[in-house]
Amino acid sequence: MAVICPVITYYFASYLRLLPRNCKFNYGFIFYCFWLVQEILKSSFTVIKIIWSRQLNITPSFEWVEFKDSAFNDMGLVVYGNSITLTPGTVTVDTTDGMLLVHALEQSSINDLHKGEMAHRINKIVSF
Asked: How many CB atoms lie within 10 A of CB 105?
């Protein structure tokens, strides 16, 4: 279901010409969806460990995250912000000038975003 819904949504959005002409997804977004589901599962287990631990050893933080790859257009920014929010333990709070304000339960989640793997994968699927 996690793959079927985005495919159907993309099909109807492109059929109804709701997508901007200069922004088109290639079929690599299917692989991105699988990768994102894997990241969601890993983060879910991390949050479950935090919840079930007797000592609450979390380091919540707010931090601005900038893009490592070339500047995203609006579509890439939306996909990036929503992908961060879908991952348990992280929430995108604000966007300003190509940067996202992210709240995370663990500093390691912010560190993973600073590495830029998610931004790099999104850059591959969104063409300019």
From this structure: 20
Alpha-carbon gap, residue 114 to 22, rounded angstroms: 27
Dihedral sign of CA atoms 90, 109, 35, 78 in order: positive
- At residue 60's C-alpha, the angle toward residues 110 and 53, to 5°, is 110
Q: Which residues contact 106 (CB under 8 A, 6 or more apart)?
A: 46, 50, 58, 59, 60, 89
pLDDT digits (tens, 9 = 90+) for 45-94: 999 998 898 888 888 899 998 875 555 677 788 888 899 999 999 999 99
The CA–CA distances, whole Å, from 48 to 43, 52, 86, 114 equal: 9, 6, 15, 23
Is residue 94 within 8 Å of 39, Cβ to Cβ? Answer: no
pTM: 0.76
Name, in order, each residue with C-beta under 8 angstroms of 8's C-beta and a sequence gap of 6 or more.
none
